[in-house]
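Review form for a predicted model. The reviewer records the input and the model, then writes brief findings.
Reviewer: anonymous (R2)
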Amino acid sequence: MTRVVLLGASPGPDTSPTGLRLAALPGNPTVAERLRGQLASYDQRPATIAGGDVAAALRALAEVAESATESLLIIPENSLIHDELIYQITKTKRGALALVAKEPRPGSTDEEAPEDTAESESELVPIDEADPEIGLNRLEGLPVRARVGKSRVVSVGTATHAVTRPNGVLLGPLHVSARNAQVLAETCRDLAALAHTFGPDDDLVQLVVFGLVRNGVSVGIRGRRDLFYRRVTTQEEVNEAGPEMAAMDEDRARLNNAVKGADGFFTTYFVSTYSRFIARWAARRGLTPNQVTLISIALGVAAAACFATGDRPWMVLGGVLIYFAFVFDCVDGQVARYARKFGVLGAWLDATFDRFKEYVVFAGLALGYVIAGNGEDIWILALAALGLQSVRHLLDFSFGAANRRKPPAKLPMLALDAPDDRELRAALSRRREERSHGLRGVLKMWTRAGRFRALHWARKMIVFPIGERFAAIAITAALFDARITFLTLVIWGSVAAAYSLTGRLMRSLV
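Model under review:
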């Protein structure tokens, strides 16, 4: 669940959406009415905080955060936003996430590629030597007073707090996890005591993130990408924004977001290129993720039956069927994400029967090998492949469970009344330096190496994910025999296990 907090006018210019109507929509709703309708599925009774008095607004937000037992979505009431963007922001697993826009670089229109290193702009002074400043530029009506890095907000300023080379704005929506709710409450109370130091154009969301960052909370970032968000203050802006929002294909964005972004090479290039369209077709016809999972299971069992014959034509058909069993294994998750139909049963079915399909195919391959008169020693290889894969799944599960219990790394803190962020950036520099030595340095270097596309995909493939495993089974079984299939699974699986175990031991020691 999510606790929704609607913000009225910020301390700056009046942004109240009262009377601003979307004439193109049925019922001619106001901007605020539309937003409340969009958020009803998250929170039937959202908290509303009036603007005007910044100290009072911050204290009211502190009270809401203190009583919250779930994550919080803080969003200005004058927001025009796609439903899919709300969903993407609220489903984050980060401790805090803000929607940002980066100030375009000279000669570029890219506002969604934040960086935290020396930039390609024609700057005389590297960022590490730059002096903090009060951001005077404006972007979408907001003062540019945030330093946005590659994955998080590095620093935020106000009308009286300087920030080193500001390059972006906090557009409005801010998601804070339940574990940071108390930090948010304390931060808002401390900010309320400093309200007299803020300027008339300081935005309330900006002030909240300013406090969170200085209190050591990692605030992640997200750009709008192919979705729409804008704050509107006049009817003219509403009239301009409405057609612009309608012109963007929200359904296509939703479909693209239904595909996992961290899939392996085979899944990315040989399945997800078209499986998303099967998922949309299935969802629009009322098929549930569990029903798609059952189709995948049936195809897996049929593939095992084909392999069990030991005849070459049936082996080829088995290879085709196991491929499509994997396709529908991807489709069930994509249907769940596209239609937003999630359930404990579905998650259990997906995880359990992935293993079932794999192991029943092992049995079918071994049985077919024996039926073809090639000897019964194949069972040793089959058991070796099954045992190796079982151990890998156990290690994956145990490491994931242990990693979830690991507390997030703390970031440097800075007093709220510090006039600039020099001390914060110096502390971040020392932290980067400390983390560049020993095992941390090796892991960091290996992570950076992923910027090279060939190495990125090589790292994805070496761990032998399920897509590569099913592809290896399909190809080797269709072209060769079960012995080659099991040797491939055992050898590649052993390399993957050694690689994964080494990386996890290193990460456990840092």
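Findings: Residues 265 and 457 are 6 Å apart (CA to CA).
Further findings: Confidence is low (pLDDT under 50) at residues 11-15, 109-122.
Recommendation: see findings above.
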